[in-house]
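Good morning N.,

You mentioned wanting to compare the apo and holo forms, so I went ahead and generated the holo version with manganese (II) ion. This is what I fed in:
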Amino acid sequence: MVVVGVTSYFNWRDNALALRMTYVRKLSRLGAVPVVIPPDPSLDVGEVLERVDAVLLSGGGDVDPRFYGEEPRRGIGRVEPGRDELEIRLVREAFSRGKPLLAICRGIQVVNVALGGTLYQDIELEVPNAIKHRWIRGSEFEVPMWYPVHWVEIDTGSRLFRILGTRRLLVNSFHHQAVKRVAPALRPVAWAPDGVVEAVEAPHHPFFIGVQWHPEAMDDEYSWKLFQAFVDAAKR
Ligand code: MN
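and this is what came out, ligand included:
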């Protein structure tokens, strides 16, 4: 039995843990058992990692810019107190232990910050000539979540390319932040047409990949390939 720990967020209004079911269903369909990791900074991440075979970082709000040494600027959105601390420690520990990790949307940003990189606090305000990456305003989706809106170009020397078998991929896009300075231990492996980094990976790690899009919400062959490769890595 393969157990995948999936990070979640706290819904303050309902005083409840929350996680989109699409993450859970993709894992279940591939025979993995998803377990929810609450955004509780008092958790012992070492103990958590003893009990899961892999970690999936789910999407969510913005990383507090203090974690990459910046003051909040005008474009910053909702931040999630507690979740940042927990996920940053989880990423560092999974990285040093060689534990398979797949990071999605907010996840790629957390991974980059945890390992010493920085973020654009708001693409529209900080990246000249950027394409439209934010297809959601507040909680209002402007396209169905599975709908791809832009291309990414994938580095043919990357693990991501070996998994997907394509150098061009259509992806969905529900983000307003992005990786800026890439963390030293990571390398960028996919880019949007405006140069925004859409995927990173750790070259010497068994499986350590972050993507800026939402493969869990898509149903194309490439999204399944990525999740299958992740679950396969968790089995080893
Ligand atoms: Mn995008």
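Residues 133, 150, 173, 175, 192, 198, 212 surround manganese (II) ion (CB under 6 Å).

Happy to go through it together on a call whenever suits you.

Best,
F.
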